[in-house]
Amino acid sequence: MSITRRVFLKNGAIAIVGTSIVPAFLTRAIYAAETAAPGKKRLIVLFQRGAADGLNIVVPHGEQAYYAMRPNIAIPRQSVLDLDGFFGLHPSMSAFKPLWDQKHLAIVHAAGSPDNTRSHFDAQDYMESGTPGVKSTEDGWLNRALGGLKEPQASPFRAVAMGGAVPRTLAGSVPAVAMSDIRSFAVGGRGPAGNAASNTFEAMYEQSVDSVLHGTGNETFEAVKMLKSADPEKYTPAAGADYPRGRFGDSLRQVAQLVKANLGVEVAFADIGGWDHHVNEGSVQGQIANLTREFSQSIAAFWTDLGDLAEDTVIVTMSEFGRTARENGNRGTDHGHANVMFVLGGPVKGGKIYGRWPGLQAGQLYEGRDLAVTTDFRQVLSESLTRHLGTDNLQKVFPGFEKSSPKDFLKFLG
Amino acid sequence: MPATRKALVLLSLVTMISAALLVAADKKEKKNQSQTAAAQMDDDKKIVHALNRFTFGIRPSDVERVRSVGLDKWFDQQLHPDKIADGGLEARLERFRTLKMSTREMVDNFPPPQVVKAIENGRKGLPHDPAKRAVYEAQVMKREERQERKQNAGAPNGDNQPVKNSPASNQLPSNQAASNQLASNQAGNSTSSNNTNADMSKASGDMQSDSKPAADDSSLTPAQRKAKQKQREDAMYADLGTGPQPSNSTSTPGNNMLPASAPAAQPNPATQPKPGAAAKPQPPASPSTQSGASQQKADAMFTDLAKSDDRLLQMPPDDRYKAILKMTPEERMDMADSYRGGKVFKLVEGMKPENQETVEAIVNPQMVVGGELSEGKMLRAVYSERQLDEVMTDFWYNHFNVFIGKGPDRYMITAYERDVIRPHALGKFKDLLNATAKSPAMLFYLDNWQSVGPNSELAVFGPGGRPRYRGRYQRFPRPQQNKNRPSGLNENYAREIMELHTLGVDGGYTQKDVTELAKVLTGWSIEKPQEGGGFKFNERTHEPGDKHVLGHKIGNHGEGEGMEMLDILAHHPSTAKFISKKLAMRFVSDNPPQSLVDRMAETFMKKDGDIKEVLRTMFKSPEFWAPDAYRAKVKTPLEFVASAARASGADVQNALPMVQFLNRMGMPLHGMQPPTGYSMKSDAWVNSSALLNRMNFALQLGSGKLQGTAVDQKILLNGATPADSDAALAVLEQGILSGDVSPQTHAVMQKQLNDPTVTQRKLDDPNRTPNAGAIAGLIMGSPEFQKR
Predict the structure, then answer these.
(1) Is residue A201 in a domain?
(2) pLDDT value at position A399?
(3) Measured between alpha carbons, how far is A278 from B167 in angstroms, rounded to an integer?
């Protein structure tokens, strides 16, 4: 499969390069296709906004305290998809089970931010800036990580966020493209008038003496044309890649299209909201079940969809904080502390739960109520960046964070 | 003889002198002429520069007007906005009632989730006014339906989040806002999707998810919902005498699951909580039924809904309004469901402003609050004659940023911008600082309202208070009622006030200063933030004892401690420098010359932080007029959108589509989540997606395709009647860019004039002048127009 594709691409590249005049963007796209795609590492960052209930997602079914504290919303032991005799996946996440069995999926439990804020607002901000407790940080950790990777011929699609604006995680000096829909990433819509307007603007920006606008203008039109030429829409989901309906599935489907179209995606960001289950969270069924189903099915579909390209891909998930170990009076949970992170990818040593489990006994809970943080989320990100993307400026990515060196890695990437 | 000689000499002298004088006069005149010629150019450029910096963009006639008044005088006028008549703007803002309301009035008229919950729980009664009542009832119904849906275990997409205030959380129920997309939480305008209709439904307090409407509603089982809907509608239209729509073929077996109760028999939701929950047990739909067939049903249902909507839309506006008020609460809720998003504008078209507001509030009250706020801001930027006042209000709002998506702040920002920021925008900095420090919006946004001194009465003795204060009926110590009540110092505001509002991050303060200032500010709180209450100093949460901040010893005197510290901060040299630099960055360049900043800071110190005087010093500084400052600033999205509307003389009847473009460009109004406010540097605003959106906005505006905004070709051409397309181009380049068009852009434009697809010239009429709007769109999307 991979050989066929490579040969095809190579032949295709030669065929096109052979013809005399080739626009720069096209050759770049083709070379990118040939050289960048296989072996090119990429990191996909997924954010669960609203504070997901990690204890009902990766269930510590070996903890009696878990069942004692959640009389109505605990996932019964016989329902969980057991992973190692102690932890199990929520039953609606069956899409993750094969990935676990194939050892592509690793789980880091009791991970989170050291900051004790229980405000979504602050906690998301801290997690996206990568600087817990520091509000004045202007850029996001993922952007700073790219800043340390030399990339003179970077593709405009190097950093992509699915959504209308560049998220905080990707904000910063390295150009990042935000798109809510790859079909609408163009000027003047489709049709001849749009094309003509687009060409006019391109010529204006091409010749602009303003260096910033000139540069970004070129980048933009290159991206628009690359997108048009690569026509990512023709990459329909691979067989078996069944994306569920909804924005999150749409986002991942489009990220897969950009990756498969060899547009040089190095990092991508998408998010899924709706985890703030204060009331009627549900158990085997209900809100949590629906959302974890959508979440896991989307990611599993993305994984299937990438095919061989998944080998060079690492996916990391996070949420601003976890939820209270006890259920509240409304069969829901309130804002807590530690949470669970998933790491999925070709190079990932999966099939294992990483991190230290702090326990759910009365004396073990953080502030008497929440799962304690035993792994800083930045440890997980540091390892992903260093081991996968080859980032070497971690002191700039996570300033002041002392556990970003290899000795603090959990070693899910070797 | 001597007399004759004398006379002769005199005569010759006079002749000589007069000749010399004449020559001199001639020379002087020539010199004057040449000077005038040079100065004329400079002056015009100066006028363009000043207009670019002190306004939201140049209207075609502005340069001429400033020239006739004189630049210095114009600037002085702008420094005194109260002396500038602004009737045109006031007329445009007249229809937005919330802009004149107090926070309390807004909460009362446009109930937020907390108020709706209070009604549902019977803690609050429904209002008597029929319009207001209709708004309340719809919200109560919506709330019930949402909860019902949540209990439905088989909901295919558990997307909508419960509205619940967690006692442990310092967030309010609508904190889902923050957990949605960053900076995308405008009521009625969101950035997170291109589906602008769906965007409108995302008022964050409403906790709608990002899912498509179909997904939202399908959780109620399409068949049931459709049938229910139809039943209600038929009843409604029968009542209105328009006749029910014939039942069509999409009816399904789901019909028999309907409750027997007719809409008219609906119990009052306020007196009988959750009637729906009892009446309509929902069978859990298994996930497998969620695709295919049921989706088709859902689609059919929406087609159906759309058809019936037409009947309502076809009524005259007044009848339509009456019909809506006549509906049962359930019917209105269904109407609200089907008119979420941009569709509501069709529904309210032609109605009186207050009726429009009522109908919009039935659909979504938060949308009215947030929508009017952002529309008001946009219209002010475009139409106010007090342009510098608008620019400075925007500057200070951004400096003292508050995020609309954080809980009840949505209802506080209107008053914050109007009563806290605007009155001091050109006043004294200390007044501005004090006003923000006491504003509920800021106290809530940066959490100070719940900061509790560790040794305060509340922390030490609990809610029951000091034993000696207890009355004789409370002899026994009361158990602490709420273990999760805030009980510690919150440093958030104390940190930001020094870092972002006054001294600057390098202004010379330590973590110790932050902690001590936080102690000083304990007790600065809000009276019932959920209900629109104002500032209150809470003695019981105030930390006792001396505090030491920035080398000053602050004695124990309650609220006065904060006042003392604010005064110290407002007059600190670091503050003078920090504020001066930020102003220079807004008005001069991304990296302003230090000499200019120093001069401004000196004025700041000398004139007690008088913002007018600091601006005047800047205006008189050579650095402000340096050639390399000319058109050196990249416009922010707000500046870009407002300047395009001003340059094209657009008539904005509905500013929300413009506001939505700002979201897509990454600058939602009042929607900056972190307290830093938006960046004033170009690199934040020049990125691919934002640039594409600027071009698309320009094209839409120019060609008249931007909803709610009309561009008149005659106004665009500023009265000129160009003979051919070249002449039209020249007029437009002058009008929109004040003639500052690069040869490159001009050449590109000229070339394009021959392309009928660009200029929208009719192919069968080659002599017809091209569409000025299409050309204007291209000019407004050009690199030149991105700068000011």
Answers:
(1) no
(2) 96
(3) 11
**Dihedral of CA B525/B527/B531/B534: which sign?**
negative
Interface check for B487 against chain A (CB to CB < 8 A): the answer is no
Domain check: are B620 and B642 in the same one? Answer: no
Do A25 and A53 share a domain, yes or no? no
Nearest residue in chain B measured CA to CA from A188: B696
End-to-end CA distance of chain A: 27
B779: closest chain A residue by CA: A201
In A, which residues are within 8 Å of B691 by CB distance?
A: 213, 216-217, 220
- Which among B591, B695, B736 is the top mutation candidate for probing chain A, defined by the most A β-carbons within 10 Å of its own β-carbon? B695
Q: Dihedral, CA atoms, B419, B423, B428, B429, nearest 10 degrees?
A: 40
Provide the number of CB pairs (under 8 Å) joining chain A to chain B. 273
Q: For chain B of 788 residues, list the mean pLDDT of each consecutive stretch of 10.
A: 55 54 49 41 86 96 95 97 97 95 94 88 88 89 79 47 36 34 33 33 32 38 51 40 33 33 36 38 40 48 51 86 86 79 79 89 89 97 98 98 90 97 98 98 91 89 66 49 55 89 91 92 92 93 96 96 98 98 97 97 98 98 93 96 97 94 89 86 81 93 92 86 84 93 92 71 57 90 95
Of B580, B611, B629, which one is at a domain's C-terminal end? B629
Contact A220 B447 (CB under 8 A): no
Query: Does the beta-carbon distance from A330 to B162 stay under 8 Å?
Result: yes
pLDDT computed for residue B686 by the predictor: 82
Domain that holds residue B61: 2-84
> Are residue B676 and residue B576 in the same domain, yes or no?
no
Instruction: Report the domain count for chain B.
Output: 4
Partnered with residue A108 across adjacent β-strands are A341, A354
CB distance A165–B695 less than 8 Å?
no
Q: A105-120 pLDDT, tens per residue? A: 999 999 999 998 877 7
Tell me if B244 sits within 8 A of B238, measured CB to CB: yes
Q: CATH number, domain at A372?
A: 3.40.720
The DSSP annotation for B670-700 comes to T---STT----SGGGT--HHHHHHHHHHHHH
A354 in a structural domain: yes
| Residue A69 within any structural domain of the chain | yes
Q: Scan residues 644-673 of B and list those with Cβ closer than 8 Å to A.
A: 663-664, 666, 673
Place of tokens 């890649």: A241
Give the residue from chain A lying closest to B492, CA to CA: A135
In chain A, how many domains are there? 2
Instruction: Look at B686 and A125 and tell me if their CB atoms are within 8 Å.
Output: no
| Nearest-CA distance B113 → chain A (Å) | 15
Tokens at residue A409, please? 């890695």
Residues A393-405: tens digit of each pLDDT: 899 999 999 999 9
Closest by CA to A339, choosing from A124, A141, A95, is: A124
Interval A250-309: pLDDT, tens: 999 999 999 999 899 999 999 998 898 877 899 999 999 999 999 999 999 999 999 999
Q: Are residues B80 and B114 in the same domain?
A: no
Q: Do A11 and A137 have their domain in common?
A: no
Using the Cβ of B178 and the Cβ atoms of chain A, whether some distance falls under 8 Å is answered with: yes
* Closest in B664, B674, B760 to A125, CB measured: B674
Nearest to A135 among B179, B496, B752 (CB): B496
3-state SS of A27-76 is HHHHHHHHHHCCCCCEEEEEEECCCCCHHHCEECCCCHHHHHHCCCCCCC
Cβ under 8 Å to A: B residues 246-285? 284
ipTM: 0.72
How distant is the Cα of A223 from the closest Cα of chain B, in angstroms?
A: 8
Contact B158 A289 (CB under 8 A): yes
Q: Are residues B575 and B659 in the same domain?
A: no
Domain boundary among B604, B629, B654: B629
Q: Residue B450's closest CA among B484, B481, B480, B417?
A: B484
Provide the 10 A C-beta neighbour count for residue B649: 19
Same domain? A252 vs A124: yes
Domain of residue A2, residue span: 1-36
